[in-house]
Amino acid sequence: MKPGRSPSPMRAMLFYSTALLLLAFVGSLLQQSFGLAGVVAYELAFFLGLAVFFAVAVEWRPVRELFRLKPLSLNGIIRSIFAGVLAWALAQVLGTLLVFLVERAGGRIPATHELLSQAPFLVALLVGGLLPAVAEEMAFRGYVQWSLGPLGGRAAVLLTGVLFGAMHLTFIRVLPLVVLGLVFSEAARRAGSIFPSMIMHFTNNGILLSLAFFFKPGKPLPGLDPMPMDTPWVTVLVLVTSLIPLSLLAWMLARSFGPDDVKGRAAPAPLPVPSPTPSPTPSPAPSPLEEERQQPAWALLLPLIPAVLLYGLAAWQEWHMVFKR
Fold first, then answer.
1. Comparing C-alpha atoms, which of 94, 111, 299 is closest to residue 178?
2. How confident is residue 54, by pLDDT bands cut at 50, 70 and 90?
C-alpha cells in the first residue's frame, strides 16, 4: 500500500465543491424521481461514499484512522446526547428568532421536509436522523476537518462549521446550522473521535422529527418554526436573552470532551532517548501545507469557486421565494 499523504486544505476544498455540486444537481434529481430512496442514495453516495473514496484513493489512508472511528465510553455517549440536546435548543432559539425577523420584514418561510412528513416515524428517523448523522459526519467531521488540520485545530473547527452550514444551501437558516457545525466540530476535535458529533447530530435531528410527529400531527416537518406575528415582545426578549447561556453551555460541553471519553485509548508514547552523538540531519522537505502557502492565496480558493457561485444562486432563489420579489 502506498504511504499515506499528508492532510491538504486544498483537497478539502476540492472534496467540498465536488460534494456540493453533486448534491445540488444530481441529488435534487434523485429526490424528485425516487423520493426517500433518492435521499438515501445521495446521502450514501455524495457524503459517505465520496468521503471514503477520497480517504482510500486520494489520501491512501485507512478508513478507521482518517475518520477517527474510536468508540466512546458510556460517559462519552451520555455527554454526547446531552450536548446534542443543548445544541438543538441553541439552534432552535436562534433559528426561530431569525425566521421571526424575516416574517416581520414581510417574508414567508416555505415548509420543508415534506417527504419525511409523509413517511412512518421510524423510516423518517432512519432517513432524516441516523443516515445524515453518519454520512455527513464522515464527510465533514471526518474528511474535511482532518484535511484542514494543518491550518490548526481552531481554524479547522471554524472552517468545518462554516462549510457544514453553507452545504445546506440556505441563507436564512445558515447561522443556526453553522452554530451546530461548530459545536459538533469542537466536540470531535477534543475527543479525537467523530462519534460524539454523530451522536449529537442524530440527537438534534431526532428531537426535531419527534416533536414534529408527536406534537404537530398532520403538519409538514418544519426546519425552523416561525413565531406568530402577534408574539409578545417579552417572549422575543426572553429568547434573545437565552442565547447567551445556551451558547456558553453548549460550547463548554463541547470543549469538555477528551481522551477519557474514548474507549481503549493508547498509553502515551515514551519520551525519545537522545542520542549521545547526534549526527547532522538534512533539511526537511517542505510540508504539503508549506508548498500550498508558496502558491498565491487565490490559488488555494480556486476549488471553492463553483461552491461559492452555487451558494450565491441558491441564496438568490431563496430570497425571491421568501419575499416573492
1. 94
2. very high
